[in-house]
Specification:
alpha/beta; 4-stranded parallel sheet; 4 strands; 4 helices; about 15% strand; globular
């Protein structure tokens, strides 16, 4: 089986979630899922980000354990170290890795303030790894 993990990175409102759902409709994950309640209400709490990211990583691993052929994870991934746990999972479970960077600006559906996006831009690391 040809297995692939798409790691989709970009600023809020760049189209990450939409792309992930198109690439892997049955196996797309993102940390924002943790903050979305039934009915679609979004309730972000920065203090819970580590938990949200751990749950996201665990969901990706669960998909890999049942051999989903295509998995997509969509998070900001502004720094390279944030992708490393997913690269490690892909290597462990035999998935090819593809990193996609979304650079669109459709506007943040979660109303992320401009100053927060500016901070993300300042810490943004260019992805230049070759697998």
């Amino acid at each position: 089986m040809n297995k692939i993990l798409y790691i989709i990175r970009g600023l809020p409102g760049s189209g990450k979630s939409t792309l992930a759902k198109q690439l892997a409709p049955k196996a797309s994950c993102e940390a924002d899922d943790y903050f979305t309640r039934q009915g679609g209400e979004y309730n972000f709490d920065a203090s819970k980000l580590p938990i949200a990211h751990e749950i996201c990583r665990n969901q990706v691993e669960q998909h890999m354990m049942v051999d989903k052929s295509v998995i997509a994870v969509a998070n900001t991934f502004s720094q390279m170290r944030e992708m490393t746990p997913y690269f490690d999972l892909a290597d462990h479970y035999g998935y090819r890795k593809s990193v996609i960077e979304c650079k669109n600006n459709f506007g943040s559906i979660h109303d992320v303030p401009d100053y927060v996006i500016d901070r993300m831009v300042k810490r943004w690391e260019t992805y230049d790894y070759i697998f």
